[in-house]
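retry 2 of 3: previous attempt timed out while embedding zinc ion. Reduced batch size to 1 and resubmitted. Inputs unchanged:
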Amino acid sequence: MIKKRYIIFLFLILLVSFYLYTSNVQRYFSPFSSYEDPLETKFEYFSLGRYPDAHEGVSLLTFDDVSYATSANDVMKVKEITDTYGAKSTYFIIPRYGGEGNTLSSNGDLVSYLSYCLSTGDEMALHGYTHYPTEELKGKSYEEQLELIDKGKEDLNVLFGPIYGFRPPSFWKNSNTYKALASEDFLYCSSASIFNVFPYHPKEFFHPFFGDDIDIIEVPCFPEDYFWDVTSENFSTLYFELITRFESCQKKGTAFVVFTHLPRLVNLDEATGRYEALEMLENYLEYTSENDIWMPTMREYTEWHIMFLELEINCRESLNELILTIDSQKDISGLTFFFDLPDVIDTVYIYHNGDMIYQNDDCASDEIIII
Ligand SMILES: [Zn+2]
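retry 2 succeeded.
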């Protein structure tokens, strides 16, 4: 009798697991591996800065649902604020919002303003094709998803050049989405996780059967748009929640991807006659810039992360000298060394791919070196 119960129990577990797996459980969850810090920062005589130029943390601004229906003026309002604080933006664009006929290129003012943003260092990324139905990729085969992603990317390619990032409409994605993105040479996907996790390779846990077919990096955001409905009444509560979330990411060393929707962000509060959400964005950027937070595009952050993952550093000491050799084919500028040298060592040499890039024979024990 006990045996029979045991088998039924096991069967139920299997059934539930299968349901969770096939019903896109990874929409808000992440593989276990993503909870652990993938970067090696602690060494015997120094630690590496997690971010370039000794920055204390990272904040990534992303604006979803930019489409033909977006007014160039609205993007201008955002840009004015981000420029003030030196923050870069990543715009997730719907190339044909609501239907094939609604092309982004039909809004010439917007396209030229976005091109200007691109020229100043912002990023244009893909957010579905029509975003209709809202969960556009749901229930679609690999071929169908590939076709939509390919068409969307082509639209943006023509207007803005190479496209590196993708955010699935309403975060709906599965292994076929990753496979399609990888075959379209995307660098990263930014969907969601309800936990503060590090960027990860989806193939490591969710899709071990797909192997190299889904060679892409996932940089998830916390799926809460704090800017969705900001009013004078809830302003301080939302702002507090936003900062708290940022701080918990910073403490752990994970990136805080700020998730917003452009149409909601530029909403004018009729009761107060103010752009409450934009004011909250401004407060947030004031806070991050005062705290020396790095504010790059999603692409810049992902490339930095990949560089760091692949970094090889070897350390050799002899008498009063410390010799560091760095092997990396990627751009390592900004890499920061926080030294903690014993008294006997006062000379430091740093080599990059065989070339000496730094020499100091009078190093302080707590020297900070930025490459
Ligand atoms: Zn969207």
